Amino acid sequence: MLDTGFPRADVENDFARARRHQVLATLAHRLRRQPPDSDRILPLDEVVDALGWRGERYLGRQTIRLDTIVGTVDSRRDFDRHFRPTTNRVRPRWEQLALAQRRGAAIPPIEVYRVGGQHFVSDGHHRVSIAAATGQQAIDAYVTKVLTNRPPGSTTPFIMAGRRAGPGPPSPGRGVRRLADQFR
């Protein structure tokens, strides 16, 4: 993260850099002939449907690592799998929050659901994106654990964005196995 001493210019640069990284990643996916939505943010529903929802338990406020945040509760298209902005539509809110953070304002914790060791954002997508863009390693969050019928480390393949070929079980592509390995 570069710091010019001008907070407004710094947040504009941070957003432009995050967008540029997302555009280059999309281009790289196309050049590698990967499915167009292979870098789509993972919805919680797809993971919980594969494991079976049993309930949830509120765990309270915790500090979680950013690299454990892998998805979202809703089907947002404003951010990619790495919480880089996919559109300039989020720019005003993104820059407003980033500017407040740079000026030392208290930023409320995000809200996440935990499945295994992975987290899915229900509130705070912009804050996660800002944290990732500015190189933070951790973020404060209110955590709710999702209880599932099968353990997240089970051999049940997870449904991965872009891997479903229509109704029915997901195809066991390389991306599905790699995601399932993350939950072991």
Characterise the protein shown here.
The chain has 184 residues and is of the alpha/beta class. The protein has one domain (7-182): Conserved hypothetical protein from pyrococcus furiosus pfu- 392566-001, ParB domain, CATH 3.90.1530.10. Helix content is 34%, strand content 23%. It contains five helices and six strands; from the N terminus they run H-E-H-E-E-H-E-E-H-E-H. The protein has helices at 7-31, 44-51, 91-102, 125-133, 174-182, and strands spanning 42-43, 53-65, 69-72, 110-115, 118-123, 138-148. The longest helix is centred in the first third of the chain and has 25 residues, at 7-31. The radius of gyration is 17 Å and the shape is flat. The two termini are 33 Å apart. The model is unreliable at 155-184 (pLDDT under 50).
Arithmetic mean pLDDT:
78
CATH topology: Conserved hypothetical protein from pyrococcus furiosus pfu- 392566-001, ParB domain
Low-confidence stretches: 155-184
Structural class: alpha/beta
Helix content range: 25-40%
Shape: flat
| Oligomerization | single chain
End-to-end C-alpha gap: 33 Å
CATH class: Alpha Beta
Report a brief summary of the structure.
The chain is of the alpha/beta class.
Question: Helices and strands in order, then pairings?
Answer:
Blueprint: H1 7-31, E1 42-43, H2 44-51, E2 53-65, E3 69-72, H3 91-102, E4 110-115, E5 118-123, H4 125-133, E6 138-148, H5 174-182
Parallel strand pairs: 1-3, 3-5, 4-6
Antiparallel strand pairs: 2-6, 4-5
Helix pairs in contact: 1-3, 3-4
